[in-house]
Amino acid sequence: xxxxxxxxxxxxxxxxxxxxxxxxxxxxxxxxxxxxxxxxxxxxxxxxxxxxxxxxxxxxxxxxxxxxxxxxxxxxxxxxxxxxxxxxxxxxxxxxxxxxxxxxx
Length: 105
Prior knowledge:
The protein is mainly alpha-helical. The protein has six helices and no strands. Helix 3 (29-37) crosses helix 4. The radius of gyration is 16 Å and the shape is elongated.
C-alpha cells in the first residue's frame, strides 16, 4: 500500500492542490480526499492504487483504451444509444490491453 502522505506530497508538488489533481484526473474528489485523510470507508488499497495509476499516467491510458473499445462495440450493438451495460467488460478488456502493453516494455 502506498503511503498516503507521499501521495499527497506528490499530488501537491505536481498539481499544486488536491482539488486541481481531481479536476485533471476525473477521479471522484470526495473519494480522493477521504483516502488522503485516512477516512475512506471502502477498499483503501484499491483507491490508493487508482490514485497512483493517475500519477503514473496509467489510468489515462486505460480510460482512453476503454473509450475506444466502448465506441466500437456500441456502434455494433443493437441497443439504441449509449448505455453502461457492458462497461465492466470494456474496462476489464482495457486493463488487459494496458497490462499486455506494459509487459512488452
